[in-house]
Amino acid sequence: xxxxxxxxxxxxxxxxxxxxxxxxxxxxxFQARPDDILIATYPKAGxxxxxYILDMLYFGQTANExxxxxxxxxxxxxxxxxxxxxxxxxxxxxxxxxxxxxxxxHFPVQFVPKSFWEQNCRVVYVARNAKDNLVSYYHFNRMxxxxxxxxxxxxxxxxxxxxxxxxxxxxxxxxxxxxxxQAHSKLHYMFYEDMxxxxxxxxxxxxxxxxxxxxxxxxxxxxxGAQFDNMKKNxxxxxxxxxxxxxxxxxxxxxxxxxxxxSHFTVAQNEEFDEDYKKKMKDTTLKFRNEx
Length: 292
Ligand code: PPS
Description:
Blueprint: E1 9-11, E2 14-16, H1 24-28, E3 37-41, H2 47-59, H3 64-69, H4 72-75, H5 89-95, E4 102-105, H6 114-118, E5 122-127, H7 130-143, H8 153-161, H9 170-183, E6 187-191, H10 192-197, H11 199-210, H12 216-225, H13 228-233, H14 267-280
3'-phosphate-adenosine-5'-phosphate sulfate binds next to α2, α7 and α13.
């Protein structure tokens, strides 16, 4: 499996791995439809959680078989992914028969295929505080054989601050999408921490953005199914069916918490991180919560 591990490359000024750039031309030419919904995130910010919620909101009532037999990564294709001996995410998205189509991307905003903007599609962006995002990404790279070798914790910690991660700098990503929100009214920018604090409230906000009005029972069903413990034991949501991941090293549904960074950062690392963070985030109105 180690032979699958890619190197980081510089791609149009963003650190990437070839698994997400090999299909670049086709992905850029992807034809979005006006009712497509793009779920955009920096890796490990809560993509699967929000994908699962949207999928349940749209199809949870009508398509029981979908929930019990199709893994979330097939229900919500990952647009730019291009792995050996698997359908590309772009082909998977093209083959979707649902309406709307739910499509996942980790692209920084400038890489998103232009048809999503031309078609004025709805976009849901999920952001997570940098410290927990870093920790989650570290464990993900340890267990996922199609991610670069993470190195030890302190190496990974430095690389994160330098933006040397697949999909580039967290700082550029969250800020790039935040700026886009000012220009594109159909972009719902949400936070992992808010979801942890009050999932029901965040589902309500999502529904109002999407123009959905589920019954109280439907909403409770969605919120219940999307609870961490339930998703963790649901083989259609927990990625246990994907062979490139080694759950013996770390599970995909790992902790699902705000503040786990405290059990990873040393005091010195925390100070270094905060100082660097202030510089990188000085010009933005975007605010994160590292604890709730
Ligand atoms: S990926 O690979 O980028 O698509 O990963 P992504 O889904 O964005 O992020 C994975 C992290 O989200 C946590 N997660 C959840 N937290 C709370 N509740 C629910 N239901 C939930 N589902 C996924 C998951 O555990 C990963 O975070 P960590 O901190 O590693 O546990």
